[in-house]
Amino acid sequence: MWETARASGAGSVVFLRIEDHDRQRSRKTFEASILEDLAWLGFVAEGPIVRQSERTAIYEEALDSFRRRGLVYACSCSRTDISGQRYPGTCAHRNLAEAPGLGLRIRIDDEVERFDDLRLGPQEQQPSAQCGDVLARDRDGNWTYQFAVAVDDWKQGVNLVIRGEDLLDSTGRQIQIARMLGRTEPPRFLHHPLVMKSRESAPQKLSKSDGDTGIRDLRARGWSAEQVIAAIPRELRP
Questions:
Q1: What is the predicted pLDDT for the residue at 195?
Q2: DSSP 57
Q3: Which domains, and CATH codes, for the chain?
Q4: Distance from C-alpha of 144 to C-alpha of 6, rounded to nearest angstrom
Q5: Measuring CA to CA, which residue among 81, 75, 132 is closest to residue 98?
Q6: String of b and e for 17-37 (b: at least 16 CB within 10 Å)?
Q7: Rounded-to-integer distance, Cα 218 and Cα 202, Å
Q8: Residue 192 is inside which H or E element, if any?
Q9: How far is residue 9's CA from residue 147's CA, in Å, rounded to a whole number?
Q10: Which of 187, 175, 185 has the alpha carbon at shortest distance from 146?
């Protein structure tokens, strides 16, 4: 994957972005651990570190561009109010005034997004059918992942995104949001397979919330950086 990033063009740099948009869950200690683990593995970001928690003005400006076109509306729905993954538009015509405790959604159109994944090939997604109107800011006042990364990729000039297969379904809506903001050429995407706990009939991906082993644990057991990298499946190696 690292070679793919290097080959993306002359003068390319690899960004490190700290996606700490969720203020209730993010901690400075988490960022420090990420930086320490990356340094130990020998990976050094070439561009400046970008923290989403410091980019509120940028996200507000982007959201304002949607407001001016009448594409933003307040939403009182919680996750438990929404059955399934698609938001059915419950608050789309309620004309709720924006206020603390309400989320903000962006009206999206019925466009079908087509893109070529560098590993999985041609893809076709219709965000309006997949997820419905996109939540830009949640009821706690946090910017959402889907909105923030679309804005950041555009503003940072990111032209190649390498990430796990679990985010493949997010690609179409992020391309659409960026295009609605004015981005004419979306980034290229490569979605790699996930590191799984097992290869059984119902495999699960590794998860910190489940207490699964991480780099720090392996390091404490005496593993070297070279051993950790060598243990990564070949298709995932940097």
A1: 67
A2: H
A3: 54-192 (3.40.50.620)
A4: 29
A5: 75
A6: bbebbeeeebeeeeeeeeeeb
A7: 25
A8: strand 188-192
A9: 26
A10: 175
* Alpha-helix runs per DSSP H in the chain: 2-6, 28-41, 56-67, 127-130, 145-155, 171-181, 215-220, 225-231
Q: Is the dihedral of CA 153, 233, 167, 21 positive or negative?
A: negative
Quickly list DSSP for 124-154: EE-HHHHT-SEEEE-TTSPBPHHHHHHHHHH
The token duo for 165 is 């297969």
Q: How far apart, in whole angstroms, are the C-alpha atoms of residue 14 and residue 43?
A: 10
DSSP letter at 100? T
Residue 184 is given by DSSP the state S
Residue closest to 190 by CA, chosen among 118, 114, 113: 118
Closest to 144 measured CA to CA, from 19, 32, 45, 41: 19
pLDDT at position 201 over 70: no
Which pTM does this prediction carry? 0.83
DSSP string, 3-31: HHHHTT-TT-----EE----TTT--HHHH
- Residue 60 CA to residue 99 CA, distance in Å, equals 15
Least confident of 93-97, 102-106, 194-198: 194-198
| Per-residue model confidence as pLDDT tens digits over 141-182 | 999 999 999 999 999 999 999 999 999 999 999 999 999 999
